């Protein structure tokens, strides 16, 4: 038991190192979770193979190999004659010694109803064996539990054609069969018929009938049959138990208790089952105090075996959520009476403790079972698998799973879900996928959550062929993955430039009338756009509209740009426009989408054609139409056409701030800051205040042209109109300061470095420009430089990257401190953040640290820039 004791120590350490237990979310093998410690002897020597061996040794103690082989043969049998003969030959070669006890054991072991029926039929045809009341009753119960009543009734109607009818009373068997099948009226009719013919039931059949009448609440008939049993001297402990059940079913609990106590005082026939029946009834009425007292009273009497009553009491406590009470009762009875629960009670406790993540107690119970030589059943083995997954020992669980044929382990759906989820969390996605495929072959399909976890892992790791197989298998079984799974899969295919495969999956969805969500359409359309397949993108755009989804302006723009890059773009463009106009009542928005798309594709001719078409259709262009048309000229660098169109607009409509803003921003983006400045002056003369974007684009364009004297004037102008320095403007100034001292020198010559700071902080901004240019040494401590910047303009990750770049040139350690501050303040470092640090370490000759940062960068999904790669 050293292995299990060491396991307990490992679980204790696991609990200490993990404040919470996450169901099915183990992220590493148990070796990494449990470092060696002198406080726990033997842990250093505990290897996975030792743990696996210990569990295997215990699991093999079931000694059910022959039973497993029987059902393996029966499970492989098909309906054709050759297959049946082959299976019967294989069963005969096992050399089974058929007896009532063995047949009952086989039927009790089986989980598949059809296999049980096949074995029952085969056994009944073997020379020297004849089915008994007990074996018939067993197969009837199996059919009844499976709710296969029609099959059971067919069985009863045809069974008389078999020869074992002659060894078992025909009517008696039918009475039992119909009684168990929930047809007490037919059973009673047959009973009356056989009594009329002078035939009677035996004690076994009488009790089957009586129990069935109780189950079906036929209380009047119960009294009649009960008297018949008494008259024939068949009264025994079973009769008492069934009568107890009758009282409890009628909610006559006081009478039941009086009856029970009367049996004891009068020396009547009684066993632990009768006590258990009343205990169970009291618990179901939430009378746990009375039930507990009843258990103790009968224990003190010492006249009734209490093992069964103890088991029912433990089960009911657990089912009511009183697991602590159940554990305390078990411990007490184990110490005082040597009570050892059967495997079923252990299973109930283990499963409940697993649900509550009480792993140490689960291991205690598993250890008790092994020490007590209690053979585990399939539920125990599955629970042990779940325990190993929860305790971070997925490698042990996987090894046991791989060896399952050695000891007849058949994972249930819960164990499959635990194992697959944990393997995904552990990074063993291939193993998780293999387990899933095996589970499907065994008839289990994972729950929606497990399917989603595995699908997400496959997509994340780019195992798209396996993901495709997974989706196909699910569709073959009419299992519909969630929209989120389809979206992730199709998105992953598109990102991997396998948009055609994504479209095939989409086609399968259409085939089964499953409407894809709008994000799936977005991913497919963007994927075809990247593949230069504008024809497919436009087809999907129409399809998504037919399915009730509304494309965005940006989606229209991307599709139109792709169409304009194809052969004969005008025809493709106008065809899509015609289809859109046929779907909608012509309005400005539809035309605007196409003017915008053509403009971004730098096809001003098409944009103008759409604009003129709109006018010819009698639709008055709105302000957005005019601005989009203006942008179309500017993006195609048709400056003269843009200026002429703007002049026409000024004559046609009142030119407000929006139109001026659009023109100024557009001119800046095509590097015409001089024309933009003229318009800016014109706007100011009209008493209008340009947008902040106008100033941002002006500053950017002027800096690119090294026209720093005008930049300073624009900053001053910005202050005069009451605008604050934006992050975009501040970052632009600091970026150019890093490249050259010219901006700062111009700033000094302008005289803005003298006197007090303006309300918007231009003096402070000038000092920052000087600091970044290397012309001024900041008095403030370098680690607080971000706080200084924040006084001038709001910071963003771009600002921090600039500051990081400045620090990495001279003070790489301060740069590392700044990186930590960036993360602490909630900013998400991007590719440039990591690249700046890596580049800085290389420049300072600290190659080992640089390589560690490269590894971290790659783990985050970022690649170093070409500039940095030359150092690697």
From TrEMBL:
- What are the ranges of the PPR repeats? 167-201, 271-305, 342-376, 377-411, 412-446, 447-481, 517-551, 587-621, 656-690, 830-864
Q: Tell me one Pfam family matched here.
A: PPR
Keywords assigned by UniProt, alphabetized: Repeat
| Coiled-coil parts of chain | none
Output the superkingdom of the source species. Answer: Eukaryota
Q: Do you know which PANTHER family this protein is assigned to? A: OS03G0856100 PROTEIN, PENTACOTRIPEPTIDE-REPEAT REGION OF PRORP DOMAIN-CONTAINING PROTEIN
The family this protein is said to belong to: Belongs to the PPR family. P subfamily.
Q: Which NCBIfam families match?
A: PPR
| The protein, known as | Pentatricopeptide repeat-containing protein
Could you tell me which species this protein originates from?
A: Tetracentron sinense (Spur-leaf)
| Taxon lineage | Eukaryota, Viridiplantae, Streptophyta, Embryophyta, Tracheophyta
């Amino acid at each position: 038991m050293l292995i299990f004791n060491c396991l307990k120590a490992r679980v204790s350490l696991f609990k200490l190192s993990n404040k919470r237990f996450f169901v099915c979310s183990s992220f590493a093998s148990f070796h990494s979770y449990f470092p060696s410690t002198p406080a726990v002897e033997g842990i250093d020597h505990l290897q996975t193979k030792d743990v696996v061996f210990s569990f295997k040794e215990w699991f093999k103690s079931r000694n059910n190999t022959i039973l497993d082989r029987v059902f393996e043969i029966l499970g492989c049998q098909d309906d054709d004659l050759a297959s049946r003969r082959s299976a019967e030959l294989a069963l005969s070669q096992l050399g089974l010694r058929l007896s009532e006890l063995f047949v009952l054991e086989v039927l009790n072991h089986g989980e598949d109803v059809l296999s049980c029926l096949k074995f029952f039929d085969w056994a009944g045809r073997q020379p020297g064996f004849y089915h008994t009341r007990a074996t018939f009753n067993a197969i009837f119960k199996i059919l009844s539990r499976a709710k296969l009543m029609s099959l059971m009734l067919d069985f009863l109607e045809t069974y008389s054609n078999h020869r074992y009818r002659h060894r078992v009373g025909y009517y008696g068997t039918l009475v039992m069969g119909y009684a168990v099948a929930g047809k007490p009226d037919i059973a009673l009719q047959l009973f009356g018929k056989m009594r009329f013919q002078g035939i009677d039931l035996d004690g076994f059949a009488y009790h089957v009938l009586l129990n069935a009448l109780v189950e079906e609440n036929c209380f009047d008939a119960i009294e009649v049959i009960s008297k018949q049993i008494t008259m024939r001297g068949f009264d025994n402990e079973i009769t008492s138990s069934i009568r107890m059940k009758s009282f409890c079913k009628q909610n006559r609990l006081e009478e039941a208790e009086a009856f029970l106590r009367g049996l004891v005082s009068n020396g009547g026939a009684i066993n632990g089952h009768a006590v258990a029946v009343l205990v169970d009834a009291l618990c179901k009425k939430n009378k746990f105090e009375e039930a507990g007292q009843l258990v103790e009273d009968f224990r003190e009497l010492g006249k009734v075996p209490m093992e069964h009553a103890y088991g029912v009491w433990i089960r009911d406590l657990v089912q009511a959520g009183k697991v602590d009470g159940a554990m305390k009762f078990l411990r007490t009875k184990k110490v005082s009476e040597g009570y050892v629960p059967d495997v079923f009670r252990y299973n109930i406790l283990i499963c409940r403790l697993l649900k509550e993540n009480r792993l140490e107690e689960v291991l205690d119970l598993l250890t008790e079972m092994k020490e007590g030589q209690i053979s585990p059943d399939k539920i125990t083995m599955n629970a042990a698998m779940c325990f190993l997954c929860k305790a971070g020992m997925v490698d042990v669980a996987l090894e046991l799973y791989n060896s399952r044929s050695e000891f007849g382990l058949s994972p249930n759906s819960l164990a499959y879900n635990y194992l697959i989820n944990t393997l995904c969390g552990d990074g063993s996605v291939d193993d998780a996928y293999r387990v899933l495929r095996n589970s499907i072959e065994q008839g289990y399909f994972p729950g929606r959550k497990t399917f989603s976890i595995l699908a997400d892992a496959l997509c994340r790791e780019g195992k798209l062929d396996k993901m495709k197989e997974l989706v196909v298998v699910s569709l073959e079984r009419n299992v519909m993955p969630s929209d989120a799974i389809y979206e992730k899969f199709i998105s992953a295919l598109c990102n991997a430039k396998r948009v055609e495969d994504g479209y095939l999956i989409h086609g399968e969805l259409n085939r089964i009338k499953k409407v894809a969500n709008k994000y799936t359409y977005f991913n497919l359309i963007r994927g075809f756009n990247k593949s230069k397949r504008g024809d497919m993108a436009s087809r999907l755009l129409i399809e998504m509209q037919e399915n009730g989804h509304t494309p965005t302006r940006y989606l229209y723009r991307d599709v139109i740009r792709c169409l304009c890059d194809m052969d004969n773009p005008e025809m493709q463009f106008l065809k899509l426009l015609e289809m859109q106009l046929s779907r909608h009542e012509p309005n400005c928005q539809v035309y605007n989408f196409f003017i915008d798309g053509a403009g971004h594709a730098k096809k001003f001719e098409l944009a103008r054609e759409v604009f003129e078409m709109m006018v010819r259709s009698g639709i008055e262009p709105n302000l957005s139409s005019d601005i989009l048309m203006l942008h179309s000229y500017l993006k195609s660098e048709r400056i003269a056409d843009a200026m002429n169109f703007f002049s026409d607009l000024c004559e046609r409509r009142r030119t407000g701030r929006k139109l001026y803003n659009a023109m100024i921003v557009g001119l800046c983006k095509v590097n015409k800051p001089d024309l933009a400045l003229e318009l800016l002056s014109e706007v100011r003369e009209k008493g209008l205040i340009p947008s902040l974007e106008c100033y941002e684009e002006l500053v950017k364009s002027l800096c690119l042209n090294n026209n720093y004297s005008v930049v300073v004037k624009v900053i001053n102008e910005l202050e005069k109109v009451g605008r604050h320095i934006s992050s975009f403007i501040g970052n632009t100034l600091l970026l150019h300061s890093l490249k050259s001292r010219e901006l700062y020198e111009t700033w000094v010559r302008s005289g803005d470095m003298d006197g007090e700071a303006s309300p918007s902080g231009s003096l402070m901004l000038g000092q920052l420009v000087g600091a970044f240019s290397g012309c001024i040494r900041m008095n403030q401590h370098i680690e607080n430089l971000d706080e200084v910047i924040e006084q001038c303009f709001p910071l963003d990750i771009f600002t921090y990257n600039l500051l990081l770049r400045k620090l990495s040139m001279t003070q790489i350690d301060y740069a590392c401190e700044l990186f930590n501050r960036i993360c602490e303040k909630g900013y998400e470092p991007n590719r440039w953040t990591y690249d700046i640090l890596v580049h800085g370490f290389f420049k300072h000759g600290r190659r080992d640290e640089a390589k560690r940062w490269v590894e971290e960068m790659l783990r985050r999904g970022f690649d170093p820039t070409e500039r940095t790669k030359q150092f690697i």
